[in-house]
Specification:
The structure holds 2 protein chains of 2 kinds.
Chain A: H1 2-10, H2 17-37, H3 52-61, E1 67-69, H4 75-81, H5 85-92, H6 126-140, E2 146-151, H7 158-169, E3 174-180, E4 183-184, E5 187-188, H8 189-192, E6 209-213, H9 217-232, E7 238-243, H10 263-268, H11 272-282, H12 288-311
Parallel strand pairs in A: 1-2, 2-3, 3-7, 6-7
Antiparallel strand pairs in A: 4-5
Chain B: E1 2-5, H1 6-20, E2 24-28, H2 44-48, E3 53-55, H3 60-72, E4 76-81, H4 91-97, H5 101-104, E5 114-119, H6 135-138, E6 144-146, H7 151-163, E7 168-173, E8 180-183, E9 197-200, E10 205-209, H8 213-224, E11 230-234, E12 237-239, H9 243-253, E13 256-263, H10 268-280, E14 289-293, H11 302-308, H12 312-325
Parallel strand pairs in B: 2-3, 2-4, 4-5, 5-7, 6-7, 10-11, 10-13, 13-14
Antiparallel strand pairs in B: 1-8, 6-12, 9-11
Helix pairs in contact in B: 1-7, 3-4, 8-12, 9-10
The chains are: A alpha/beta, B alpha/beta.
């Protein structure tokens, strides 16, 4: 399985890699929605559709030895980093073949061998941990870096500010990637946050802060890569604000009726997968027919992955007692 | 054996682990240049340098969380919380993150960090700097919790905690930092987690104690001056606690008295009494007794604070009443008349 993750990670470097992976993430999340509606997903689940370019751009820029901490809206990030649709859907449906053996669920995906630490279901909690990963690499001079991916809602929690401060004073190799999808749970950012660009907050900690088009996977990749280069060369942390949008509500219980009319349509016109497809056709990398074939192939694979997950056994009772202590 | 103060034993434990394991680092407020608010890290900056011995900003969420991340990445960080209360602003990182790392990664990742915190009453720091707060950590599967009762266990438990593969909290009774005890340094002085230690042997009663209540129990026994004898069990580790040693002792004495620096309601002694009562129902000669603090914040005034924490006199008197009547005496705050 781990070999497969590494291969999937490496595939992001191919010309069609980002398109394929974003398409896969979208297909997996659409499948998760169906599985949820059918009663195969317990609790809640948080979809990231619309934000695929951020997940894939981060994964394309990072090395598998770099550490990524991300949020409960992490299906896309997990798939981007290399986890397979079967082990992601398996986890979300609580199967023992899931990437956390059914211990975690939708909010707790993990793949340490490709740098994905168990995803964080507490807003902001992954930032200090990423800072610690960066501290470890600084102490051991391992040359790795850490990336904390979090939402705009986390930018108002103490952990965000404390983490930027500590990373700045210790000049740690960490990149803070804020996915600003305009809503913290059900609340529009203007009601919770007095600045329009969260990247401005970097100035308070004397670190670089940049606004990035989060719908453009190439822009995300190059911004993260540049920040990682700076981090690895003792240039300290960077705050990147990815302007993006969440097509769904906060979680499965949220119909997102609070959104102004027309806002979703406006963002759908800048859909990251469509943008990437247009670019691939324009620059002659692929034809529409080829991309269609890829879409069909991925849809079939994801459908198979879901079937495999549902056919897999649920964990044995004794498994709940495993790994409580190392 | 060397007689040292408890804070010196802490310094020595840290120095020995820093020396033997290059992945050990120390983080905390004023632990490096100043040597720690209680001088429990004195001299370590000079010996091991600023990369491994780090002063942090007053930013517990960041540095405790950073310790979690550094631990997951392969280091063995030891965090000092100047007062255990300061953990409150960072508790998420310990209880909700560190304690779940192994579980959520199917053991692929671990978080071998140690959180040292000074804790407890007795020095007049008032109600926001004198709590013991073991209950914040004790019912979180995935965390271990150790409490030294003096220099010997401060040295031995801390070294064991740093070597443990998971997160361990060590609550150091602040009132004991200046107290001296014989310590065996080196590997032989390591005190394994999860094992209690019998500090006195007797027949009439088992006193189960932890941290600063261990010397309290010993002093109570001395005050009894032969009127009764006791097994005194120093739990040393609260999670997991040594059920076998406690049950074995109570099976011998037939009487259990737990001496706790914890509020009566929900204190750790309830767990001990529940387990022992379940195991030894029908063999007990008297009801289990808990000598605790009242359900109140720690008072500042010296006579009040001295009364708040179980004193040797109180323990001796409660044990005598238990032995004389076979009934459980009421806690002092529920009794009328002078106590």
């Amino acid at each position: 399985m781990n070999g497969e993750r590494q291969l999937r990670r490496a595939a992001l470097a191919t010309p069609l890699g980002p398109f394929e992976r974003m398409t896969e993430i979208r297909a997996v999340e659409e499948r998760i929605q169906i599985l949820y509606n059918e009663g195969h997903v317990r609790g809640s689940t948080h979809l990231s559709n619309g934000q695929e370019a951020v997940a894939v751009g981060v994964a394309a820029a990072a090395r598998p030895t770099d550490i990524v901490t991300c949020t409960y809206r992490g299906h896309g990030q997990a798939l981007a980093l290399g986890l397979t649709p079967t082990e992601v859907i398996g986890e979300i449906t609580g199967r023992s073949i899931g990437c956390a053996g059914g211990h975690g669920g939708s909010m707790h995906l993990a793949g340490p061998d490709v740098g994905l630490w168990p995803t964080f279901a507490i807003v902001g909690a992954g930032l200090p941990v990423a800072v610690g990963a960066a501290l470890a690499t600084q102490v051991t001079q391992a040359g790795h870096a850490a990336i904390a991916v979090f939402g705009d809602g986390a930018a108002n929690i103490g952990a965000f500010h404390e983490s930027l401060n500590l990373a700045a004073i210790w000049r740690l190799p960490v990149v803070f990637v804020c996915e600003n999808n305009l809503y913290g749970e059900y609340t529009r950012i203007q009601l919770s946050t007095p600045v329009s660009d969260l990247a401005d907050r970097a100035a308070a900690y004397a670190i670089p802060g940049l606004v990035v088009d989060g719908q453009d996977v190439a822009a995300v990749t190059s911004a993260v890569r540049e920040a990682l280069d700076r981090a690895r060369n003792d240039g300290g942390p960077t705050l990147l604000e990815m302007k993006t949008y969440r097509y769904s509500g906060h979680s499965k219980s949220d119909p997102a009726t609070y959104r102004p009319a027309g806002e979703l349509d406006q963002w759908l016109r800048r859909d990251p997968i469509t943008l990437e497809a247009s670019k691939l056709i324009e620059n002659g990398t692929a034809t529409e027919e080829q991309l269609s074939a890829i879409r069909s192939l991925i849809a079939a694979k994801v459908q198979q992955a879901a079937a495999d997950a549902l056919a897999a056994p649920e964990p044995e009772a004794a498994e709940m007692l495993m790994h409580v202590h190392p | 054996m060397t007689k040292v103060r408890m804070r010196q034993a802490v310094v020595q434990a840290l120095a020995d682990e820093l020396e033997s394991d290059p992945t050990v680092i120390l983080l905390g407020e004023d632990i490096a240049a100043a040597g720690g608010a209680f001088k429990a890290t004195e001299g370590l900056l000079d010996r091991f340098g600023p990369v491994r011995v780090r002063d942090t900003p007053i930013s517990e969420m960041a540095f405790l969380g950073a310790a979690v991340g550094a631990a997951m990445a392969g280091l063995r960080p030891v965090v000092e919380m100047m007062f255990v209360e300061f953990t409150g602003v960072a508790l998420d990182q310990l209880v909700t993150e560190a304690a779940k790392v192994s579980y959520l990664s199917r053991g692929e990742l671990t978080a071998p960090l140690t959180v040292r915190a000074s804790a407890g009453a007795g020095l007049g720091f008032g109600c926001q700097h004198s709590q013991f707060l073991d209950h914040w950590f004790r019912a979180t599967p995935g965390l271990k919790l150790a409490v030294p009762s003096g220099a010997r266990t401060a040295y031995g438990l801390l070294r064991a905690a740093i070597r443990d593969p998971g997160p361990v909290v060590v609550l150091e009774p602040r009132v004991l930092y200046g107290e001296r005890e014989d310590v065996e340094f080196g590997e032989a002085g390591i005190v394994p987690l999860g094992r209690a230690h019998r500090v006195a042997s007797g027949d009439d009663v088992t006193l189960v104690a932890l941290g600063a209540t261990v010397p309290t129990g010993v002093a109570a026994l001395q005050q009894a001056a032969g009127a009764w004898s006791a097994d005194i069990v120093d739990l040393q580790t609260l999670v997991p606690w040594d059920r076998e040693t406690v049950v074995e002792s109570v099976r011998h004495t037939g009487r259990l008295v737990v001496v706790e620096e914890a509020p009566y309601s929900g204190g750790w002694g309830s767990e001990i009494c529940d387990y022992v009562a379940g195991e030894l129902f029908g063999e007990l000669k008297a009801p289990a007794l808990r000598v605790t603090t009242p359900d109140a914040p720690v008072p500042y005034s010296q006579p009040l604070e001295e009364r708040f924490v179980p004193s040797p006199e109180l323990v001796a008197s409660q044990v005598s009443q238990l032995l004389a009547t076979g009934r459980r005496p009421a806690p002092w705050w529920e009794q009328s008349g002078p106590q």
